[in-house]
Amino acid sequence: MKKIIIIISALCLGILAVTWLYFKKINSSNISNEQIFNVIPNDASIIFEYKNEAYFYDIFKDFMLFDDILGKNNLTHLKVLKQIFVDDAAISEAFTQSDLFFSIHPTGQYLADLLIVAPIANQNASEAEILQILKTKYKISQNPEKENTIYQLAFSNKSAFSFFVYKNLVVGSFEEKLVKKSIAQIEKGTENTSFNVDFSAQRNKNSIANLYLNFSKIRDFANHFSARKNPYETYFLKSFDASASLNINYQKNAFMFSGITNPNLKAKNYFNLFLDQQPGVITLAKRLPLDVANYALYYVSDYKKFKDGLKELLIYQKEFEGLNTQISNISIKHAINLDKEIIPVFGKEFGVFQLASGDNIGIIKTTNTNRLSFLLSTISSEVSADIRHFDDSFILYNYFGDPFKQFKRPYYTTIENHLIVANSTVALTRFVANYKAQRLIGLTDKNIDFQQYLSNQGNIFYFIHNGNSKAIFRSFLSKPAYKDFRSDNFNWKDLYGFAIQFSADKDKFYTNLYMNHTPEREELLPQIDSTALKF
């Protein structure tokens, strides 16, 4: 009996010891991850994390999208660092099985660079020991004047990797400005609040790679490459105040991520209006013409709830009173209760898209096209047999918000069960001609191949067609940025498109992000190629 008690006691003590060590390791990991984000400057919009293990490099050794997106110069730098810190057995032991991070930051005019953060996984490897090993093999110089000493690892092509060591983190970049910015943030004791990421809840430690996005910073990052005095802000990026934590899903020749987007729930913006909506099937993407450059499509399960939220947003923006007065005046003038009559014939889908020409078009699904046509005919003027012109301004902005603000007093037409609006009759006429001839991007083999990896259910759908966006990119980017963008350093021309989808779930959005290479003809599924229009 005494022996049994001793054995049971020993087992209990063993379980307690293992449990303590396990949670100590988890707690240590969480602290390390918080430290990682705190050394990354606040202007980071994108952070990529991957496991520094052999299987990651084996899986992605022939993966070309890294080269296309980051540029061959950056990839060359990263490969050289891999040879030093990963492939060199004398050094790699300190970083084995740690998660490596790199973030993207604006630097000089129209330029950006990477900041690399490498946690020292081997707690027994001290800063002095790592530096001593490096100095025996590589040319290392240092600046001893700083509290956090900056070291330079020189290369034969006259470039240098600047880095410092802070609390078991190696932080470095080929752009010394970024390293100094990181040190300045540490010395000020400033926490990085740019990413609303709760590691314990959101971060998938089992994922081979994770992507973190700060949407409001992405807007600033994009505008950094524009020469315009008032950089272009799309209706969707402007309203984003959210950060995402996404996990990679490996697919050959594509970036595919899924995870959660956490919006700032205190923010008053258009994006948050969809949190109270149930996801649904979007059909509008199949109605868009061949030359569509980008689109933003929306689904609302409860329009009344959406309209109530939009009203609160307009009140907050101090626009509601003017719009409400205008709607009341229209109703009196035309003896029609516009809210009562028009709202019931709106469907659950609406959105806007831009053509390769730069023209913007709005599309709204209706439940009763004949009824809507009659109602709108009372508040518009005839331009041609199929096209009319709104008599008053911002009517659609009042009912659908931000995406439709660009259509002050648009022209419109109806086709099947859709209301189509644009700021020119030429754009409308071209759309109708393409629609009737079924020259639609949704029928092309490449788009069908692209869409098969995405869900057709959600609340917010964004898409950019790379080939159709050339002129738009050229008009937005500065000449130096566009030249680099189209150079051999990048290979964006081989990318087909980019999509991101959001499905609401109370206080967050489930998110899918997808970007791919244009598939070769032989890579397309036979059933797709046999039924699709050639593109």
Q: What is the compact description of this entry?
A:
It contains 20 helices and 22 strands. The chain has 535 residues and is of the alpha+beta class.
Descriptive keywords:
single chain; 535 residues; alpha+beta; 20-stranded antiparallel β-sheet; 37% helix; 26% strand; disordered N terminus; disordered C terminus
Helix count from the secondary structure assignment: 20
| Contiguous runs where pLDDT drops below 50 for at least 5 residues | 1-31, 526-535
Count the strands? 22
Structural class: alpha+beta
Shape: elongated
**What is the helical fraction, as a range of percent?**
25-40%
Strand content: 25-35%
Please describe the biggest sheet, giving its number of strands, its sense, and whether it closes into a barrel. Answer: 20 strands, antiparallel
Using only CA atoms, what is the Rg? 27 Å
* Quaternary organization: single chain
Mean pLDDT equals: 83
Q: How widely separated are the two ends?
A: 82 Å
Description:
This protein is 37% helix and 26% strand. It has 535 residues and is α+β, with helices and mostly antiparallel strands. It has a 20-stranded antiparallel β-sheet, sandwiched between helices. It has a two-stranded antiparallel ribbon with strand order 11-19. The N and C termini lie far apart (82 Å). Residues 1-31 and 526-535 have low confidence and may be disordered.
Layout of secondary structure:
Layout: H1 2-39, E1 46-51, H2 54-59, H3 65-70, H4 72-85, H5 89-92, E2 99-106, E3 112-119, H6 127-137, E4 140-143, E5 150-154, E6 160-166, E7 169-173, H7 176-188, H8 199-202, E8 209-214, H9 215-223, H10 235-238, E9 242-248, E10 254-263, E11 280-281, E12 292-299, H11 303-316, H12 320-334, H13 338-342, E13 346-355, E14 360-366, H14 369-377, E15 380-382, E16 388-390, H15 395-400, E17 411-415, E18 418-422, H16 425-436, H17 445-451, E19 457-458, E20 460-465, H18 470-476, H19 479-485, E21 495-505, E22 508-517, H20 526-531
Antiparallel strand pairs: 1-2, 1-8, 2-3, 3-7, 4-5, 5-6, 6-7, 8-9, 9-10, 10-22, 11-19, 12-13, 12-20, 13-14, 14-18, 15-16, 16-17, 17-18, 20-21, 21-22
